[in-house]
Structure formats: C-alpha cells, structure tokens
Amino acid sequence: MSYGGGYRGRRSGHYDSRRDDRRPPETESQKLRNLILKFGEGSEFHPSSELPVIAQALRAGFAQNAPGIVEGFRMAIIEQPYKTLYLAALLTLLSSKSTAQTEGSNSDPAQVVFDELCKSFQTTLDKLEWRQIRLYTHFFACLTLSKAVSPSSFLDLLQSFLVVLDEPGVSYERLHAAAACAGEGLMRAGPALYSFNPIAVDAIISTINSSGEPHAPQRTISRPILDPNPLVLPEADVYLTSLVGALTSLRDKSFEALPECLPQPHTLFPEPTKLLDIPPSLVPPEEIDFDRAVDEELKRKELMPAISIRMFGNDVTPDPSSPAGFMIRSGLSDVINIFEVNRKECARILLEMPRWFVWGTFRGKSSNFVRAYLTASSPQTIVYYFALVTDLCKLSPQTVGPAVGKSFRKLYAFLGNGLDVEISRRYCEWFAMHMSNFGFNWVWKEWIPDLELPLYHPKRVFIRRVIALEIRLAYYDRILKTLPEPFTTLEARCIPDEAPGPEFEYENQQHPYYEPAQSLLNLIRGRSQIEEVVQFAESMRSNLSETVTLADGATSDSVVRSITMQILLHVGSRSFSHFLNAIERYLPLLRSLGSDPQDKLDFLNAAASFWHRNGQMIGIVFDKLMQYQIVDPTDIIGWCFDNAERRKRDDDGTGSPGTLSFREWDLVKAALDKAIGRVAIAQNRVQLLRKEEEEAKAKLTAGQTRVDDDGMEVDTNGVGRAVFENLNTALKARSILTREQKAALARILDGFVSSLVLQATVGQLDTLKPGHWDLREQWTQAQWQYWETFGWYRHFCRNYLAQLKSYTVTLESGPLAKATVTGDRAAAGTLMMSVWNVALGRGHS
Fold first, then answer.
1. Torsion angles phi and psi, residue 377, rounded to 5
2. Largest separation between any pair of C-alpha atoms in the chain
3. Integer Cα distance of 775 and 769 in angstroms
4. How far apart are CA 115 and CA 70, in angstroms?
5. Which residues on adjacent β-strands are paired with residue 715?
6. Strand, helix or coil for residue 508
7. What are the extents of the domains in the chain?
8. Distance CA 730, CA 679 (A)
9. What Cα–Cα distance (Å) separates residue 52 from each residue in 82, 98, 252, 327, 494?
10. From CA 693, how far away is CA 696, in angstroms rounded?
11. What pLDDT was estimated at residue 844?
C-alpha cells in the first residue's frame, strides 16, 4: 500500500557538506541499524517492495554486524511503536524462504535477533519498565499474527500479566499497566489467538473487565465533570472501560480481523519457515522499600482511574471504546509520551501518523490529532502538552488552529456545568500560554454576555484568571488593548485597575510609621553591617509604642516585622537578584524578630500586602521564605486558610472568609510540595548513607578495620565513625521533616473542614446534592464559592493520596474528626467523609 502526500523526512533540507565533515563516517553496523530506524520515511512507502530489500541487506551483513541490527530492532520497538507491524513483518522476512541462508553461515538471523530481543524484554520485565514491556508485547503480538511466534507461547505471556490482576492489594498503577499489556497484546494478536484457544481469550477479557471493580468507586472523584445529569454530561473515557469495550467488540465478531485502522503487511509476504517461542516469564513482584526515595514515589505515585474528557462526538474523534478508536488514541498517546524529550519531533511525527494507519483513517485532516490530555493526573508535565499543541499549530495552522479554537470553546462551555476545578486551572494556563504564542488574539466579544453572571461563577473566574496570566506573560497595557471595553470597566472586575507592581505602604509621609521606616530603609540601602541593623530594629521595637500611636490590634513587635519585611522587599523590588541579595544579606535580622507562628504570619501578611497586585510575586516570596526557613510550609497553609482580610483584597474581588481561590490553592500546593520535597531529599540522604554503612560493615567483616580511642571499630581510613554519625543525623532530620509533612497535611485538612463544614449553610450544601444541578443558573455567589472550595478538597484527596495514606489514622482522629457534626452542617461533613473514603478505596461517593 502507498502512503503518499507531503512527507518531509528527518534529513530533508539544504545539504551542508561542512556539517557532514564534522561527523565521523558511519560504520556498516550503524548503517544497518539506521536502515531499520529510517525505513518508511521517504515520500512514498511501499512495504511490499521496500521490506524485502531491507531484509536482504540485513541478512547479507548479519554475520559481521549482528549487534547493530539487534539494536536497530530494539530501538525501533520502544521508540517507534507506530512501525511495529512492519517491524514484525521485517523480522518474519528474515526467516522466510525468499531470503536464503547467508553463504558460509549456519545461523538463522531471525532466530538470533528474536533471542536477543527476548533477553532485552526480560530485562525490562525485571526492572518493571511498564511502557517498554507493553511495547515489546505489541511486537510479540504482531509476530504471532504473522505466524512467526507460536500462539501458545504468546498466550502464556498474556496470562502471566493476568496473574498481576489477582494480586491482593495490587495498586491501580500496577493493575493498569498489566491489564494494558494483556489487553493491547490480545487486540493485536486476536485473530491468531482466538482460532487457537477461544476459551482462553474469553477468560482474558473477563479478567480484565473484573479487575477494575475494586477501584470503580474512585472514579467518582477522578471524573473530570461532576454533573449527574446524563443529558449534559460529556462522555468520559476510562482506560479499562475503553479497553474492554474494544476487546468485546472484536470478540463479538470472533476476532475475524484486526481493527480496521491497522494495515496488514504480514499478508503481503510468505509465511515464515519456522515458529519461534517466547521463553516463559513471570512478572516480578513490586518491591516494598521503605527507604526508597520519596521523589521516586512522586514520579510514579499510585494512580487513580485515568479519565479524560470527550469533547466531541464520534463523527469528529473516534469512539475510544471501538477497536479503531482505541488503537488510534493509544498510538497517539505512545508517540506523545515517548517524544517528550523532543516536542518538535513529536509534532512532526504526529502530523505524519496517517501514513502508519490504513489510508483514509484520518480523512486527510490533522485536526484529529488535537486532544486535551486533561486527566486527574497527567503523565507528563502540563507545559509539554501546551508547547506541543503550539508546535502542531505552527506546522499545520490551517487544520490544527481551528481545531484548537473549537477545543477552547468546548471547554469554556463546560465551565459552570461541573468541570473539575483542577482541569479549569489547566485550561486557564493552556489558554493564556497559547494566546501568548499567537499575539493574544481571541474573539473576547463572544464572552461579553457572561459578565452578567455572579462574580464567582466559573466562567467569570476563568476570565479573570486568564487575563491575570496573560498580563504575567506580557504587559498590562498590551493586554488591556486586546480586550473589548466591557472587560476593562471597573464594574466587570476582570482586570486590575493598575499594572502589577509593588506597593510600599511606608513611603507615604503621612503614614504614622514613616519616620522609623525611613531610618531603617536608609540603613539597609546603605548596606550597613548586620549587627548595626539588628541593634536599630531592637531599639525601634522598644521605642515605637512611645513615639507613635499603634493601630488597633497591632504591637510594636508586629509593626517592626511588617516594616522590616516590606523594606527588604522594597529594596529588592528592582529585580529578582536584588530581592535575593537583600533577603540573604539580612536573614539574621528576620530571624531575630521572632520565630513563633504569629511572628511568621506578620512576615507573610507584610509580603502579601506589598505584592497584593501581583500574585506571582507573592508565590515567589513565600517560596524563598520557606527556602530560607523564615517560615514553614504549615505557616503558609494556615495563612491561606485563615486570613480572611487578605482574601477581601485579592484581585478576585471580595471573597468571603474560608473560600479557597485559584491563587490560594497555588500557594497551598506549593507549600505542601515543599514539605514533601524536603522529605524526599532527606530520604535520598538516608538511602545513600545506608549504602555507605553497608560498605563499612563489609570492610569490618573483611578485617579491614581498627579500634579507635573510644573503642569504636572503624575502617583503616577512619571513616566508619563518620558514616555512623552522619546516618544518625540524617535519620533525625528525616524524622523532623516527616513530622513537618504530616503537620502540613493535617493543617490543609483542618482548613478544608473549617471552610466546608463550619462556614457552610443549608443553601450552599444544596449545591452539591444530586438533582440540584437544574437550578445552577440560580446559584448565588456564595454557592459558587462553596463549589470551588469543595473542588480543591476533592483534588487534594486524589492528588496527594500516596501521602494521605501514610497518615490515615492521625488525620482521621485529628482534623477529619471535626467533620462529624450535627444539624444543618452535617451534610457538608458527610460529603467530606464520603470523598475521603472513596479516595482511600473504601466506598462510593
């Protein structure tokens, strides 16, 4: 079959001989390896004629270059999965009658390559590298389809994955990965396996179908849209559900053929002369290492059911539960995941994916590649997806651009119709970043009628958030010019009345603290010695109450802390480096002004007041204060939940006390991530020192030791004692940081309880009751605020599930105990506990 039309190869472009001169010439082994990696990338691809030529070249050079050929197959399998069917056909050709044995060699190239690939597969299996395991399984499935691998050995491989599904207490991550290997392998080898053993095939589908049942309740808090009305709920994609649906559809037709979107190159060539057998293998158990680095746990945190939004119908994007739809989505996802390291190459390959499917599958439109990967937990960094869409638009603006615009409008329509707040946040960031890459051009007038909605309606929150992000990415005046007049009025409250900047309240000569503040400012600007500045601050603290009248509730200590923090920020407001220099130089000054929780709140209040028009700078300052240990993560979390006055001054309007906005959640998340990250660093340190301790013990056993003056056995270099002392210190540090992490989690839960239970009203509670969604057009501002805070609680429970599980008993007996209330507020507590129990896999929400 031919795949023509507009292909631009990787090496296309102007030939530069000087560039080639700088590269060493390719060896014969490298040429054969690249022959495998680059086949099919010409302007025309004819597998019936090209693959036999490649197979003959590989066979001719196999005796001297076997390692390079094996490496070419291995790399293509795990880095170019869109070629897997053709790779299987190529390996099959190596053992067919049409390519006779190499003269003077008794080895069978196909057997040698296959044996080496089986060894490589076993290595990935031992390391539990699930993506590579799944892609190798795809390759073996295609070999089974082409009758190069025995159905019995491949069936044994699939059944080894099913064993994982029956493991007691298996995590969703491991279950999901094993089910994907078994199900996707069956989908590709179904015709061969079903004719060989239909009973076993039915058993595989049944086992995969039932494997997700223990985690089914967790889908309720992973769903991207919380609207129980089936008439308005967009279809959501749950991976296992889609996989079982596609398999069932194929089974109902007795696996007569592959999904219609897949080419069948194996039918173009003779059958192989011999059957290959996959060696028996078992999936190793997942090791439980309590000293494993926490950052690794974060990278591969226990997943909840993966659910994504279906924004368009089956006439635009394929049904993910159909065989063809599942294959297409799976193929695109693999390319996106593999090429995260090179998004421009990823964009190029995505636009050329039609050549690797049956001609006509995509109806010649690149827009089918555009999908929003908006799940509860994204596999890659969100910015990568945003940048990838931008590159797709630049490569094919006529087709991808309109598709992106349709996606923006579709997601906007979901706002106020149950769209999860975390997905709304990602949507804001995607929209703003995309606008910054294309001149901030958008048809804002479409959304003018929405300015009549309540201030905290998700659409108005989105508009304010996007404009704030656009200002961050450009300039205030420039963004102002892109907006229609209705968005720029004070009544609309979409844009701040001034450009984001600092506000040093003590520069006003009418301020009661102006004179002492100016004196301290002059000392700091003059880079006075730290001792002199500390001494002046102490004298100012003792004299302040005698010279000026303090505001209600203020103390001389709190005033000095506020003045000092704002002065350091004022001196450092010229640039980020100025800010860091000022803070680092006068850290002893800040530490001398107090260290109890109330003292730290004074620092945070002063910083937030100084940068109240710039939420980004508040986050930066708070992060640095945590880094320099002026404040703790728990201090910031408490500040976010408790400081109602600051909420009334933020750029989102007059938020009621207890309401958690986008800005506040960003600060809470940053503080919690800081606490978790510190535990990760401490855990890594402990792990490293334990290895050194084991080495020291091994030397002790080998007799390479001596006894020091204190009777301590150390090695001949005297490092044994140092290792022991360092390990003891690291263990203590880890213990302290772990308590800090637990305290941060508890403080967040306590804040949510206060917000959702203690400040709830009966009217707000009705917001989240089934059947009340038909009345959402009548919701008040308070109800929408309650909805947003509940959304962040829901996201907190699923996003930090791994950490919450570690402290379940403490958290349930502490902050969550307050959720057990009676009266009108009981419904809020019941709802919180329901979400909590579902996140932990205990029941339904």
1. -140, 110
2. 104
3. 11
4. 10
5. 705
6. coil
7. 28-285+297-307, 675-839
8. 11
9. 19, 9, 36, 27, 64
10. 5
11. 53
What span, in angstroms and rounded, lies between the C-alpha atoms of 655 and 755? 12
Using a cut of 0.90, tell me whether the model's pTM lies above it: no
**Residue 237 DSSP symbol:** E
Calculate what percentage of the chain has a pLDDT beyond 90: 51
What is the per-residue pLDDT across 185-215, written as a single tens digit (0 to 9) for each? 999 999 999 999 999 999 999 999 988 776 6
Distance CA 232, CA 224 (A): 13
Confirm if 668 and 640 have CB atoms less than 8 A apart.
yes
| Strands 705-707 vs 236-238: parallel, antiparallel or unpaired | unpaired
Tokens linked to 212: 């997700």
Please write down the HEC assignment for all residues of 418-464.
CECHHHHHHHHHHHHHHHHHCCCCCCHHHHHHHHHCCCCCHHHHHHH
225 or 288, which is more confident: 225
- 575 CA to centre of own chain: 31
326 sits in which H/E element: helix 323-338
Question: What phi-psi label fits residue 229: left (phi over 0), alpha (psi between -120 and 50 degrees) or beta?
Answer: beta
Identify the DSSP state of 527.
T
pLDDT at 449 over 50: yes
Site of tokens 């795809």: 138
Q: Which amino acid is at 378?
A: S
Structure token pair of residue 698: 């091994």
What 3-state DSSP class applies to 236? strand
Give residue 361's identity as a one-letter amino acid code: T
Phi and psi angles of residue 349, each rounded to the nearest 5 degrees, phi first: -65, -40
Tokens at residue 430, please? 């995607």
CATH class of the structural domain 28-285+297-307:
mainly alpha
For the record, the structure tokens of 197 come out as: 């053993």
pLDDT of residue 814: 86
Segment 727-773, tens digit of pLDDT: 889 999 999 999 999 999 999 999 998 888 766 654 555 566 655 66
Which amino acid is residue 806, in one-letter code? S
* pLDDT digit string, tens, across residues 123-177: 999 999 999 999 999 999 999 999 999 999 999 999 999 999 988 878 888 998 9
The pLDDT of residue 80 is above 90: yes
Residue 154 to residues 89, 119, 200, 240, 800, Cα–Cα distance (Å): 17, 15, 12, 21, 38
> Half-sphere exposure of 545 toward its Cβ, with a 13 Å CA cutoff?
10
